[in-house]
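Lab notebook, bench 4. We co-purified these components, and the gel suggests they stay together. Before we commit to crystallization screens, I want a quick structural picture of the whole thing.
Request: model the full complex, all chains together.
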Amino acid sequence: MLPQVIGLLAFTAVPLVASLGYSFTNWDLVAPSPTFVGLDNWQHLLGDDRIPAVLWNTVRFILVGTSTLLVFSLVAALLTFTPRRFVGVYRAALFLPYVLSQIAVGVVWRWMFNSQSGPISGIWELFGGTSPDWLLDPATAMPSIAMVTTWQTIGYGMTLYVAALQGVPVSLLEAATIDGANRWQRFRNVTVPMISPTVFFLTVTSLIGAFQLFDPVVAMTSASAGPATAGGPSNSTRTIVLYMYNQMFNYNEQVSGLGYAAAIAWMLALLIFLVTAVQFLVSGRWVHYEDPTASGGRRRRRARR
Amino acid sequence: MSAVTAPRAWARATTKERGQTVLYHGFMIVMVFAYIFPALWALSMSLRTDENMYAADQLIPHPITFEHYHRLFEALPELGRYFGNTLLIAVIGTAGTLLSSSMAGYALARFRFPGRGTLLATMLLTLMVPVHATLIPQYVIFRELGWLNSPLPIIVPMLFGTPFASFFFRQYFITLPGELEDAAAIDGAGPWRCFFRIIVPLSGPAYLALGLLTFVSLWNSFYVNSIYLTRQDSWVLTQALQSLIGRYTAQYGAIMAGVTLVSLPILVAYLFFQRWIVRGISMTGLAN
Amino acid sequence: MGLRKKAFGITAAAACLALLVAGCTGDSSTEDEGDDDGAATGDVEPATVRVMLWGNDADISSIKDAAAGFSTARPEITIEWESGDCGVDYAACKTLVAGGNTPDVFVMGSWNYFEAARDGVTADLTPYLEESGTTTDDFTPAIIDALTSPSDGKLYGLPMGYNIQSLFYNKDMFDAAGLDYPPADGSYTYDDLREWAAKLTLDGSGNDATAAGFDPNAIQQYGYFNFAAAPIEPGYAPVLAAFGGGILGGDARNECTADSEGTIEGFQWLQDLMWTDHSAITPQLQQEEPGYARWVRGQVAMQQGSHEQVLAVQQQNPELNYGIAALPEGPAGNATLAQIHVWVMSEASEHKDAAWEFLHYMATEGAGKQMGLIPAYQDVAQGPAFAQAEGEPEGLVEAQIDPAGWDLTFTNVDPSVVWSAVSSQDGIAPAIEDIIMNRATAAEALDGICASRIDALLDAAK
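Here is the predicted assembly.
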């Protein structure tokens, strides 16, 4: 255990605590050393009117991104969790986007979203609408990015759900059938409670990821392939971490470089902590954990020898 | 499993069941095709002529050209070396994470020791503070250690285990019954002997699942590598691909050829190992 | 409680350690790894010089090729090549500086050259230059002027070369439309350009954009592309300057002129081509396929671009029959934008003499053929290093070299270090997006923008 603790301390805890330390300093990264400024950065943070705006952008991302991820990966899992021919291939195909590099995702989806010959616009117009400009329109840019992120992570969510669905005891489902429950009732009253820990896990991790959204925004909104020009159109996709990054390197109005960036980072960590804590508190009401020792024997065991 | 039993099942199936099967596969093929369309588009871009690079009717390229693959190797003659560097980082990093995180996870699952709460809290925090905020202090540490331009800044932290992986293993080990270890302990086995003799052999799927996730993220990471690996002979594949983009022009055909080559091995690995991966995840009893 | 106290102690100690480590950068950075066999020529100790480059694979190999002569002449100086974004993206430089790992020599873009100088990251080269016998007169005047600090008169780098925005045109399309080629020296106007663009825009039935039956929804060939559709500065800046405007003005480029008459007219010209005439690539089309790529493959008749386009043609469509002309005259005169790549030396370098030797060689004797740029040293540009190189289009000298001497030609240097803020989403970016997306006219989008947005950013930087 000792090496682990030392390593974790050296490579994780020290930089972490250092960044907290920096939040009480002023450092533009090129001066020889930081200057101590006390609570200035934190005070400035409270009065920074851009923070609510970037938070709101993040919330818009979450509303679309997290909800679609939870639903669509469940649908994908329901379609592929029963062992039958080719499901392995289907699952592998659905997992494919997860292994693609960001360069390809950015290039391909910029093309997918173009309103001239892009397939998304084509489908939209098929249903009679006039296609929006997706990434070029402040109203649709963030939802578009959220959809791409969902697209990329469905494979991961699906894999988790498949695992959970295969763990739902057959005996319980059979018992429900005998009691006269129809398909929907069985799903609602047996399956959903049984997979609720997975829903919970996915929600928690995808929210943490959503609050730290950065790479996809840069890949899809930057005019010059760098974070400096990302966040448009009209600031509609600037996230907290993008704002923090820009403050850190003083792309925007100068506050105090790394010092202010560190304060933003810790505010974000605090926020994520609160959101996660609330989720854990509320989880008692809807997340059902089966007792692993009691249910071990009842789990549907699949012959995989 | 199904691959063997299915033909017999098909022969026994009623017309209605057969119809349902056909319907299911038809539906799945359409859905999967729509879903991976963007990825197919990337593959198809790697096989198109520059002239047709963005044409909407070129999903199946006509004419097909392998010129971009050729150009890729021409522009990046040391591609083999970058492949080797990437593989080294991904393999050692994954192996290290698996070993260390599982040991840490085991300790967190089974032992009470002073500082356990602090350790858990620190690990949780690292997940919540965005990576960019700790970039500079980390960079300073690695420079002081003289590790720049070597894979060490990426590999060594992995050798001490990552917070996410440690949690993952902790959750998994909690679900394993303690009786076997108790029996071994009575026979005089120490905790680590218990771990390697009993726990590890029982946990193949968990290792496989986490191994894949770790491998993918190491294989595709760009930003961190581009900061630490600035000498061209230490580059990884993503850096090499990025070097095909100029300020006002880009060789998208060659980039997509590179992306195809880079993604393929992982996809094949998923196809082969997914059964164990799914089982590994299903046994973690996630997020208790 | 005891545990908590202990944890706090560890935490506090770790914080102090980290601050300490960050604070004492530089004293233990690079070790001297000099070659001891090669005898020193001149008065430079044997040394290893770390040189960091950015750019695509072709850019990087072009520089290594140009440096081959140096390694032969000065075997006692070993060059260690690195690649990193420092210079193209200043954030990458800051990471290196903060980490105490700045390379000895690197390449700055004119767009962040002065930011690095202000921060003391790059060394003042004036004394080295005086000693070397090379004078500023040996370089293209406009380029060396742009690199001379307006505040202290010092030079913080020597030009590797520069690129200039010109008009690239498809000869076959001009022939088919019965139009004369644009004069290479730029003796034509933005009105001419607009008219040609319309005549070179063709729909599916062969109507051009001036014809009565022209269908803007079925365009097969476009007249014009400008990187303003992206939107990036090298695209729109030359147009604004020719109309007598610009987003920032004044000697130090720190006065807001974004709502001036000329700026509005320039942006309106760009918007009109995209949305009134339907003759230019819009942001939507740019998103579908980059405008330069359309020009290279022969779907667009004209584009404003830099010399990089010559290399793109060689790589992607060597058959293209094209010419190159200087940018046209606007109401204020002929104007273009020059971007300079600058060889600079780290102020923190421990091998400044050796680093200077290398940098000096690359900017003088070794000048030319680096990153496809126009060399700024003496008349190298007129020879085989640029103008007479193989595969160059005709009109190159008039279009790419001569405009450096125009009165309105400017370099995107940023002596007041305000551009990154002004060009960001907090500054001008949303207004430009509204213009090129046709959500507002240029006059509407830019109305009062100095007072409402830009001035505050300029004040903050002072």
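The beta strands of chain A are 25-26, 35-36. Worth comparing against the SEC data before the next meeting. The radius of gyration of chain A is 23 Å.
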